[in-house]
Amino acid sequence: MENELISVIVPMYNVERYIEGCLRSVLGGKYKKIELICVDDGSTDGTVAAAARVRDGDARVRIIKQPNQGVSAARNTGLRAASGAYIAFADADDWVSQDYLSTLYEIAQQKYADIVRCAFFSTVRYAPFSPFPEDAVFEVTQVPEQKKGRDLVRPVWCALYRREICPSFDVGVQIGEDLLYNIRILSAHAELTAWLCSKRLYAHYCRAASIINAAGVEEHCSAFNAITASLPTLPVKKYAVVCAVKQALAFREHINMLGKTEYRPRARVLLRQAFSLLLKCRELPFYEKTKYVPFICSAKLYEMYRRSR
Fold this sequence. Notes:
Distance between the termini: 41 Å
CATH class of the largest domain: Alpha Beta
Number of domains: 2
Number of helices: 11
Strand content: 15-25%
Structural class: alpha/beta
Radius of gyration: 20 Å
Low-confidence stretches: none
Mean pLDDT: 89
Oligomer: single chain
Largest sheet: 9 strands, mixed
CATH topology of the largest domain: Spore Coat Polysaccharide Biosynthesis Protein SpsA, Chain A
Shape: globular
């Protein structure tokens, strides 16, 4: 059977330094039947010129320019332009293994999967052409229903999606948009089949300016608000509730790490809201709810749990 086209969507905004490494890592992969859709979201630096240098040497690259509207709008532009049977996303300052798309596609075909996710590693060292960690032993496992909220409500990068299940991103949400996107997919497709590959095939670059800081604290809060605001529109709410609880826990953990005592009243408000959502969610079985209650009540218990993983 002939390989199907994969559309890889890369939103770009002022990433002149990074975009070439990202694009060349995707194009240099073993899976060749791709279209690489670069959506420039109104960059004011040399991002477009850098991407054009790559495009001029490879007909699989397309560049679409639009006024600055945010990452969600840029991804939607890419989705509208995509013609592949599968969709993958990449952030413009990240890079991928040569086996990235070939491995995910092979699993999708063998397992008839709607979503396949791989493992990733985060790094503060920008080295898009350095060798990937060698995971000689790795697992490919199906995601059971009770773990979909935990394993699939994650960033949209390092995943391959069957095109038919991909909705549009909410352009009103700029923080936590990845989480909300996956929540909507899970909520709309009750029989969705998903598989995980434990091999690290995606590198997520953490710029120094974005590592654990006050802006990151606000991100957790904004993501929580976006997720809870979406609840009335979701036919299945349990995935959103679990994700909201995790964002509230992450918010508290983050401010404790930074010693930001001024945020503690807001953390208590978020945790109370999360606790109320958890108790009221009829779709979640009792045993599932009891897993989160001790963590909501005790920051130390949650910290111990996180360290033990």
